TrEMBL record:
Pfam families xrefs: BPD_transp_1
Ranges in a coiled coil: none
Alphabetically ordered keywords of this record: Membrane, Transmembrane, Transmembrane helix, Transport
Protein name per UniProt: ABC transporter permease
Membrane spanning stretches: 20-42, 54-72, 145-169, 181-202
CDD domains (alphabetical): TM_PBP2 (cd06261)
InterPro entries xrefs: ABC_transp_perm/SBD, MetI-like, MetI-like_sf
UniProt entry tagged with the keyword Transmembrane: yes
Length: 215
């Protein structure tokens, strides 16, 4: 194992960076999309319920099947990987964003409106900061989940550590096949832990002390 890692260290490092970069960029994109959608639907009970149902149903879809379906219109490469990872990343964030915005006390919103703040300013300066801890929890769950989804995206020749896993599985019993699978799997777990620690630090930096105490 040590010899395998030493001989392929540059490739492992580069694939790890690609994997991490793919997940981070997709999670950022998914957060923007999910928060915008939540801001549009959370005031309407019917739309709010629909968003929650879509999140629940979407999470039951096998990521491997979604990637397979996207290969027809999008082909192989980075694009189907980005679409799949972003889709799955947005689901937990959307659900948490809807819950977080919906749980803000109406009196707080009314007070902001009463001092002359527009609905948009109230959303950006009052509601989103208060809902941010709950939204960030969804982001952390999402990031952990799509680390694995990004590995499956290697089926579509996407970037990342999934290539080690699929390469090893395709030649089980051959030389270094098990080493390849272990390197890919352990690498994904380590990246997930690193990203979660970074998000935990981001939460402390972006959440005011008063809101942290409440949560």
């Amino acid at each position: 194992m040590f010899q395998y890692i030493a001989e392929r260290w540059d490739q492992i490092w580069f694939s790890s960076w690609q994997h991490f970069s793919l997940v981070v960029q997709c999670v950022v994109l998914a957060t923007v999309i999910a928060v915008v959608l939540a801001a549009l639907v959370y005031r309407v009970p019917g739309l709010r319920s629909a968003a929650n149902e879509i999140s629940t149903i979407g999470l039951t879809l096998p990521s491997f099947a979604v990637i397979g379906l996207l290969l027809v219109p999008l082909g192989f490469g980075v694009v189907p990987s980005v679409v799949t990872v972003t889709f799955f990343a947005a689901l937990p964030i959307l659900r948490n964003a809807v819950v977080g915005l919906n749980e803000i006390p109406p009196a707080v919103v009314e007070s902001a409106r009463g001092i002359g703040m527009s609905r948009f300013r109230t959303l950006v300066q009052v509601e989103l900061p208060m809902a941010w801890p709950i939204i960030l929890t969804g982001v952390r769950v999402s990031a952990q989940m799509v680390m694995g989804v990004a590995a499956v995206a290697a089926y579509a020749l996407g970037p990342g550590l999934g290539s080690f896993i699929f390469s090893g599985l395709s030649r089980l019993g051959g030389a270094n096949s098990l080493n390849s699978v272990v390197v890919g799997t352990v690498g994904v777990v380590l990246l997930a832990l690193v990203l979660d620690l970074l998000l935990l630090g981001l939460g402390r930096l972006t959440t005011s002390r008063g809101i942290r105490v409440q949560h």
